[in-house]
Write a structure and sequence with these properties.
By secondary structure, this protein is an alpha/beta fold. The chain contains five helices and three strands, in the order βαβαβααα. It has helices spanning 74-78, 97-109, 120-127, 133-145, 151-159, and strands spanning 67-71, 87-91, 113-114.
C-alpha cells in the first residue's frame, strides 16, 4: 500500500503579532511587494505547491485504510452496504439522536465502521419512545402545579385515563 507523504507546516510570518493571541498561525497567501515568503527566499518558510499533493490511491484515506462517506439518511447508508471494506461512515451532525442511533445500528449490523459513534448513554435515551405531545403537555402542567412530593402522583394520574361514566338514559313516553 502506498503511504501518505508528509509536508512542511505552512505558516504566515506574523510580524508584530507576537502578543496578539487572536491571530491564529494558519496559511494566508502572501501579497506584499516586499514579502520574503512570497518571493520564495530560503529561511522564510514553505509555501503550498502542487508537488506536496499525495498520490490518488491514498488521497482522502484515513489511517485505517478506509475512505469516509458522509451519510444523511437511510438511502445513502444502504448504498454503502456493498462497499464496507472500502468506506467508513460519518453520520451527519444535523441528525437527531434517535436517527443517529438507528443508522449506527444498521451500519454496524452490515459491517460498516462508524467514525463518529454515539455514546452508550445517548443510545439508551433513544430506546424510550417519546410520548404524544398532548400527553406530554398534560403531564407537564400537572407536575408544575403539584408540590415536589405530589409530582409523581400527579403525573401518574394524568397518564392513566379515567373510566368513562355512562349517563342514565331518559325514557321517552
Amino acid at each position: 500500500m502506498v503511504t501518505k507523504k508528509t509536508h512542511a507546516v505552512f505558516r504566515v510570518p506574523n510580524y508584530g503579532a507576537k502578543n496578539r493571541k487572536g491571530v491564529k498561525p494558519r496559511w494566508r497567501k502572501q501579497r506584499g511587494i516586499d514579502s520574503k515568503l512570497r518571493i520564495d527566499l530560503s529561511g522564510y518558510g514553505q509555501t503550498p505547491k502542487v508537488g506536496y499533493k499525495n498520490p490518488e490511491a491514498v488521497r482522502f484515506v484515513r489511517k485505517d485504510g478506509l475512505k469516509t462517506q458522509l451519510v444523511h439518511n437511510q438511502k445513502e447508508l444502504e448504498a454503502l452496504f456493498t462497499q464496507s471494506k472500502k468506506y467508513s461512515v460519518v453520520l451527519s451532525h444535523d441528525l437527531s439522536v434517535r436517527k443517529k442511533a438507528e443508522l449506527q445500528k444498521m451500519a454496524e449490523s452490515k459491517g460498516l465502521k462508524v467514525v463518529n459513534k454515539l455514546k452508550l448513554k445517548a443510545a439508551e435515551v433513544v430506546k424510550t419512545k417519546a410520548k404524544p405531545k398532548q400527553q406530554q403537555a398534560a403531564t407537564a402542567t400537572a407536575t408544575a402545579h403539584a408540590t415536589p412530593n405530589e409530582a409523581p402522583k400527579a403525573a401518574a394520574a394524568v397518564e392513566a385515563p379515567a373510566p368513562k361514566a355512562q349517563a342514565p338514559k331518559e325514557d321517552k313516553v
